[in-house]
Write a structure and sequence with these properties.
single chain; 457 residues; alpha/beta; FAD/NAD(P)-binding domain; Polyamine Oxidase, Chain A, domain 2; binds dihydroflavine-adenine dinucleotide
Amino acid sequence: MVELNRDVVIVGAGAAGLTAANELRKAGLSVAVLEARDRVGGRLWTDVIDGAILEIGGQWVSPDQEALIETLADLGLETYERYREGDSVYVDEAGKLTRFTGEIFPVPPATEKVMVELIDKLDALVAQMDPDRPWEHPDAEALDRISFEAWLAEQTDDQEARDNIALFIAGAMLTKPAHAFSTLQALLMAASAGSFSHLVDADFILDKRVVGGLQQVPVLLAERLGEDVHLGHAVRTLEWSDPSSGSGSVTAVADGLTVRARFAIVALAPNLYSRISFVPALPRLQHQMHQHISMGFVIKVHAVYDRPFWRDQGLSGTAFSPYELSHEAYDNSNHGDERGTLVGFVSDRNADDVFRLSAEERKERILESLSHYYGPEAKDPIVYYESDWGSEEWTRGAYAASFDLGGLHRYGADLREPVGPIHFACSDLAGAGYQHVDGAIRMGRLAASHIIEEARA
Ligand code: FDA
């Protein structure tokens, strides 16, 4: 068993943990980052599958993500625009495909009117919210009592308008059914990106990609830390004592490695906190609170073709339908690659359903759904891959975690509070940048700044 002494031990080498470690090192504190997996990056993972470079995890960068954009500049990483020339497509409940441009789906005029009104109403509610303090919204408690599905039903009888507005938050973001999270949680999701309109605008929210893949962010951050990043060391136990009762300390016991430190940052998604034995146990508030947060679930499907055939039909590749198995899909061709790649998403209950099928049947069903957007050629990719984060032991879902009904108002204000020398950081705790790499970086910076302040006191 190797034993190390450091100022700060960081559990988890995702964007949050590695950002924090770099900030702490810059302030002159020594660090050790312990990572369970044999790679850095957590939910950022760029890999080569059957000769195709795929973004198995996060990939898009939007203009509001200032912390991520600063980090990309600092690391010297370049971005490129998602392909967006041509028409988008929408499939309605009857299976009818319609081409369109702009943001609003090609629905009947009355439905369009309702959708625009709902977007305006949601924008107005979001404008009253500080994403870092959603529980302070003037109607926070009432909005946290009602599911997004029920709130939409209160606003309109127009089912297609409801299905489409729900899609922007449920299938596309929180990856939970719209009955499973509150309207306050939905507003936080929108506020974290600046407005609800930003979520409706795919050209905004899915604006840019990183040349070579977004996993380069954690890879390059880890390079700066060199031997202070320890892979394949799952932390099993965190022994701690409170600094207010004298000299605070933490001992992280990982497989084959023990690190003694003054502070710890637990930089993993909250659904995994209970994988660690805290000694003594965490206080009751944390025990309760952490049980009200769970991961969403989505399958990210990658289909690579010898050429981007949809572009010949004047299609951008952007496709939506709350009635399709793959509720959204995009042109995801790599920078400088003449092959064409489509990425589609299968969310929550649809994802559960297709994972009950054989791999062959699942592939067939998903490609069939893509063919409804792009035609029969979509059924025949040269590379096909499903990102299945649900079966990843050290993540257990995708994209990120959110509160159950009522949880955000009840516990949100306590979520980022440290416990003695133990601080918490990950994208799932963020306000601005919530659920995104931007939020992970912001939370890494925040936890580091608190520790630097305490260490200097
Ligand atoms: P993250 O989960 O990445 O890191 C936590 C680390 O802790 C992991 O490396 C894990 O292995 C480790 N760990 C867990 N338990 C441990 C233990 N006991 N001991 C040691 N280590 C432990 N975002 C975005 O901005 N744009 C996008 O396009 C997308 N798209 C997207 C698609 C998919 C499929 C996914 C899964 C996610 C996205 N996201 C995204 C979200 C984004 O990837 C995510 O929010 C951040 O990468 C999370 O970074 P964190 O560091 O907070 O957690």
